[in-house]
Amino acid sequence: MTVLMRFSGGFGGGAVLNARNFLTESDAFTQAQEAAFFASIRLRNGTYKTTDHHRLDDLNRLVIDEWRKLGSKPSQIMDVGVSSGISSVEWADALTCAGIEATILATDLCMRGSLVRLLPGYEVLLDRDGKVLQHIVANRPVRWYLNGPRDFLKGTGFVVAALNTLAGVLLPLTNMREGRKDVLLVNPHARDDARLTFAEDDILAPNAAHLRGRFNAIRVSNLLNHGYFNEAQLRGAVGNLRDRLVGAGSFLIVNRTLANGTNHGTLFRLNGANRFETVAKLREGSEIESIVLSA
């Protein structure tokens, strides 16, 4: 990824989204531009807000078919790790088409940012802790992170380091309440959909009271895997998610999309003993199935 990305001036074509464009241009950008924008946002925990349309269509079909067989119509759903939220919109659409009217709480570790002007022609996108997620210099998005020594060999590392230093100096001197713009980092269709609400969430942290015993179904896609968490953390996350379900007969869906685009997920149901049972699998099923079943 280059540090300074080209911006065409008028929006469309080869234009690259920065956080301001994303806030103001709404439907004027393409799916490819949206995906590139989210892929450029690296969070402070090292993950990216990657996204893709229709990524979970086959998983949606599997889950809905199984719910039809069981006569289940979950009305309160949580979608965890939603990135841009487009998959939540598509799930809501699929549920509505199947006659399942549900409200979905879509969550991610970072759902909101703040756009702050530091100098003429220079803005930054900040996370909730005030850390830079993106520099915007003369309409050009610039990443905050370094890709190792090779960045300095190309000269781009000096630009990134200089901007990080400049932001560190200017931010304490800036009254961020004046001219600060809040940015909901989700797809425009998602943020305008009445079936969806959004919240920031850390599934490793203790559950807030308003989340406990609330949901008929919870979906977690591309988050609970051995690449992100160790076994103890995975068991803790599964325990937290179980505590958010209403009890026997509620569902947990755990999925991972591999690099080749295939989904591998498992639909679990909570039994009367408060233990998960496998209802159905998509391809090889969830890689943490044994952890879920033994939690």
What does the overall shape look like? elongated
Query: Which topology of the largest domain does CATH recognise?
Result: Rossmann fold
- Low-pLDDT stretches: 1-13
Biggest sheet, spatial arrangement of strands: 8-2-1-9-10-11-12
The proportion of residues forming helix, as a percent range, comes to 25-40%
Mean pLDDT: 89
What is the H level of CATH, i.e. the homologous superfamily of the largest domain? Vaccinia Virus protein VP39
Query: Compute the gyration radius: what is it?
Result: 20 Å
* SS content category: alpha/beta
The number of distinct helices, counting runs of at least 4 residues, comes to: 9
CATH architecture of the largest domain: 3-Layer(aba) Sandwich
- Indicate how many domains the architecture comprises: 2
Q: Any overview of this molecule?
A:
With 295 residues, this protein is an alpha/beta fold. The chain has two domains: 19-40 and 112-182, no CATH class; 57-110 and 185-294, 3-Layer(aba) Sandwich (Rossmann fold). It is built from nine helices and twelve strands. It has helices at residues 19-25, 31-40, 57-70, 86-97, 149-154, 156-170, 188-191, 231-244, 289-294; strands at residues 76-80, 103-108, 112-119, 122-126, 132-137, 140-142, 181-184, 196-200, 217-221, 251-257, 263-270, 276-282. The protein has a seven-stranded mixed β-sheet with strand order 8-2-1-9-10-11-12, with helices on both faces. Strands 6-5-4-3-7 form a five-stranded antiparallel β-sheet, with helices on both faces. β10 and β11 form a beta hairpin. α3 (57-70) runs parallel beside α4. The model is unreliable at 1-13 (pLDDT under 50).
